[in-house]
Amino acid sequence: MRKSERPFHYVVTATTRPRRATEKNGVNYHFLPRKEFQQMIDKHRFLEWANVYGNYYGVPKDEVSPALSKGIDTIVKVDVQGAATIKKILPQAVFIFLMPPSMQALGKRLKRRRSESSEDLALRLATARKEIGSLPLFDYVITSHQDELDEVVSQIDAIVAAEKCRVKPRTVEL
């Protein structure tokens, strides 16, 4: 979606996990030391944050507020726990669940990344099974098939277009 230059603001979330070789600080995540992350928690600088798989992840408010105040469609990528927290704060936001085609397909994707141990992989798959049970929290669900990213993007575009056509538009402000 970023490469196609759609007119969205893409929020860069923060994490304390180590950066993977293919990732860039400030692009994929803001990679922070635990102490700095904790200081941001203490100063209420996150819209939401959580400890996931032993690392902290969070959505910095300063990544979200300026775009929303300008009326820019804002994309935030979080897990189910993060979505539930944000829904309490911004219930009028649009929530989209990206669903794997199957647990087997998700397992293959995660194995191809080669970034998790077999124990971590098992934990991620167990978590994914639980997260699928949270579908009622979301407004839309899109199944993300391997090598069909264009279809996912088209469906997100359709959701954004449909939301803009609402008789009673949603307004999202922090």
Keywords:
single chain; 174 residues; alpha/beta; Guanylate Kinase phosphate binding domain; 4-stranded mixed sheet; two-stranded parallel sheet; 6 helices; 40% helix
Overall structural domain count: 1
As laid out across the biggest beta sheet, the strand order is: 3-2-5-4
Structural class: alpha/beta
Roughly what is the average pLDDT, rounded to an integer?
A: 92
Question: What level of helicity do the residues show?
Answer: 40-55%
Blueprint (SSEs and pairs):
Layout: E1 9-10, E2 14-15, E3 30-31, H1 34-42, E4 46-52, E5 55-60, H2 61-69, E6 74-75, H3 80-89, E7 96-99, H4 103-113, H5 118-132, E8 140-143, H6 149-164
Parallel strand pairs: 1-6, 2-3, 7-8
Antiparallel strand pairs: 2-5, 4-5
Short description:
With 174 residues, the chain is of the alpha/beta class.
